[in-house]
Specification:
It contains 17 helices and no strands. The chain is mainly alpha-helical.
């Protein structure tokens, strides 16, 4: 039978192993100051949790009663959760966090400590004895912890949406998968926020179940963080975000180039709404149409700057044109390519799906996912449908 002491010892070992994994990350993966800060915050978080579980194991506070254990939980879990949350946020925002992002966690911890200290020293009951006043302070502390985590979960979600927007405005295919770990990690931190207040007051079988879930979420968070840093994903994300920063800067400083009449035709942009004039939109429509006719959209690895250059316009014009038409670059290119794929399937029923994918600018299995997403069927199903239509027509 698994005992509470065994679980606490396992938690200590798990946190230490995760700490070693974070420390073992090679310096070549720490490409900037934000990444380094995120890694060290993660390390601080796992060390704090290792110390927390070690103290619980050594002092046996949980065995004394829930109240004694809750005090240590609040003292250690609030800063650990704050460091994990801030590490993800710094990674998302490339170090550009607000003052509130930095102080909400410490402020929450200070307020909770004040409540606990007031309750502990003013109720006339020994610290390790049961105290109604201290119990109320602990409940308030758990609620404040939940509020803190809710704040960071909202910030994470907003930042994740911005990151996805940057990807869809730059790459020619859906690569949201590189951020899936982050989405799941945000969900894990949110679940932790909901579970920890119950865990610190729980006992018996409920405590065991919640504790195992918490260990898993922490393991997933740290392990996925390490995997992300050691992959090509950060570089690809940085490239897309730099493009988004350039777009924003251009929109803020857009001015008509009086020395270039061709560029002036595209310069009628409303600074507040970022809308181009109908003349500029029509000119880009014509340039894009010619580009599609010559198959420019079928090039491999066609990032937005390359497409804009091939069309003959500036990249921020293409982005603005797409937004004004209610599209993201990724979905626009996908629609064009899948239309070409459908044409090729009808024209060359003997071609393999891989051959058609390569002709349409795809080099991996994302072609199949995109085709099904836009048509509701696989390329094979579409080919069978067209074949059936041809047979019926011939009859």
């Amino acid at each position: 039978m698994i005992t509470l002491g065994m679980m606490q010892f396992t938690a200590v070992m798990l946190m230490l192993l995760l700490t070693l994994k974070l420390l073992a990350l090679h310096d070549r993966y720490m490409k900037d100051r934000a990444t380094k800060r995120s890694r060290w915050l993660m390390v601080a978080g796992t060390v704090t949790l290792a110390l927390h579980f070690a103290l619980q194991l050594k002092l046996g506070l949980r065995q004394m009663g829930i109240m004694q254990s809750v005090m240590l939980n609040l003292v250690m879990l609030i800063p650990a959760s704050y460091m994990f949350a801030l590490a993800i946020l710094i990674l998302q925002r490339r170090g550009r966090t607000s003052l509130w992002d930095m102080v909400v966690g410490p402020l929450t911890w200070v307020v909770v400590m004040v409540f606990l200290c007031i309750a502990a020293f003013n109720d006339g009951v020994p610290l390790l004895d049961h105290s109604p006043m201290l119990h109320k302070a602990e409940v308030v502390g758990a609620i404040l912890y939940l509020i803190m985590q809710t704040y960071y979960s909202c910030r994470h979600t907003i930042s994740l949406i911005a990151m996805r927007r940057a990807l869809h405005d730059y790459y020619d295919r859906d690569i949201d998968g590189i951020l899936r770990w982050m989405q799941l990690s945000i969900a894990s931190l949110t679940l932790l926020a909901l579970m920890v207040p119950f865990a610190i007051f729980a006992n018996g079988q409920w405590l065991m179940s919640i504790a195992f879930a918490i260990y898993f979420f922490i393991f997933y968070l740290v392990d996925s963080f390490c995997s992300y840093l050691t992959s090509s994903a950060p570089a690809r994300m940085e490239e897309a975000e730099q493009n988004a920063d350039e777009m924003e800067q251009v929109w803020l400083t857009e001015e008509t180039d009086d020395d270039n009449t061709e560029e002036s035709a595209f310069a009628a942009i409303d600074d507040e709404k970022m809308l181009m004039s109908s003349e500029a939109m029509q000119a880009i429509d014509e340039a894009v149409e010619k580009w599609i006719e010559r198959g420019g959209h079928l090039r491999l690895e066609l990032k937005l700057p390359l497409a804009a250059e091939d069309i003959g316009i500036r990249k921020h014009r293409l982005t603005c044109w797409l937004h004004q038409n209610g599209k993201k670059y990724t979905e626009w290119i996908a629609e064009l390519r899948i239309e070409e794929a459908k044409r090729l399937i009808k024209l060359h029923p003997d071609w393999t799906n891989e051959t058609i994918a390569q002709h349409c600018g795809y080099t991996d299995r994302s072609f199949f996912r995109t085709f099904k997403k836009l048509t509701g069927m696989t390329p094979m199903q579409f080919a069978e449908q067209e074949s059936s239509k041809s047979d019926n027509h011939s009859r």
